């Protein structure tokens, strides 16, 4: 059975490679090309985080009942190049929004659908298996549709802000990440 430490250890060489890169469209394309579904890294991380959710050590804190859960797996520290590691589990067939938040330094999300049609809203629209990389200063509602998925995300310096107010003039169908 996979442990949280196994996931952390598997992430270390990956984060060594990313330590001097900035989240955004260019990095998202690179991640999906180099480490997309079917690659050893994606498949290992997807398996490990799925094991963690099933075993109860990942995404085990309810935010909005059992369909929206998250947990911090690792705090930022030197061995992780000061990235934190967090898992989010979301499950809804109909589009569902989580908590509005901002990424002061961006984020890197490994998207792992548990149901074949599950999708996560990313900066480039609805995403299935692969990576999203909202850039620094981006802000959004995490959104899911089509079933259950896990987002394993890496935050530079562990920075995420839930004390941001959503723009009240934003059209509910407008999914821009960086207004």
Give your account of this protein's structure.
By secondary structure, the protein is an alpha+beta fold. Helices cover 23% and strands 31% of the residues. The strands form 3 sheets. A 6-stranded antiparallel sheet has the order 1-2-3-12-6-9. A 4-stranded antiparallel sheet has the order 4-11-7-8, with no helix packed on it. Helix 1 runs antiparallel to helix 3 (40-55). The protein is globular and about 40 Å long. Residues 169-179 have low confidence and may be disordered.
Indicate the radius of gyration in whole angstroms. 15 Å
Secondary structure category? alpha+beta
Count of helical regions? 3
Strands, total number:
12
Side-by-side strand order of the widest sheet: 1-2-3-12-6-9
Q: Give me the strand/helix succession.
A: HHHEEEEEEEEEEEE
* Alpha-carbon distance between the two ends: 42 Å
Summary?
The protein has 179 residues and is an alpha+beta fold. It has 3 helices and 12 strands.
Set out the fold topology.
Elements (H helix, E strand, L loop, with lengths): L3 H15 L6 H11 L4 H16 L5 E2 L5 E7 L8 E10 L3 E2 L3 E3 L4 E6 L5 E4 L2 E3 L2 E3 L5 E3 L2 E3 L1 E10 L23
Antiparallel strand pairs: 1-2, 2-3, 3-12, 4-11, 5-10, 6-9, 6-12, 7-8, 7-11
């Amino acid at each position: 059975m996979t442990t949280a430490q196994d996931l952390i250890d598997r992430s270390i060489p990956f984060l060594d490679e990313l330590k001097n890169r900035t989240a955004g469209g260019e990095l998202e394309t690179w991640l999906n090309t180099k480490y997309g579904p079917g690659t050893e890294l994606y498949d290992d991380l997807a398996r490990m985080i799925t094991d963690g959710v099933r075993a109860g050590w990942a995404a085990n804190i309810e935010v909005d009942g059992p369909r929206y859960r998250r947990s911090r797996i690792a705090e930022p520290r030197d061995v992780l190049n000061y990235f934190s590691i967090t898992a989010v589990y979301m499950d809804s067939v109909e589009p569902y929004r989580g908590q509005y938040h901002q990424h002061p330094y961006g984020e890197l999300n490994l998207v792992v659908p548990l149901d074949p049609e599950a999708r996560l809203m990313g900066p480039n629209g609805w995403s299935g298996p692969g990576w999203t990389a909202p850039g620094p200063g981006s802000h959004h509602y995490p959104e899911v549709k089509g079933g259950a998925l896990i987002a394993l995300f890496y935050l530079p310096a562990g920075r995420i802000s839930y004390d941001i107010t959503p723009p009240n003039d934003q059209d509910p169908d407008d999914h821009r990440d960086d207004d």
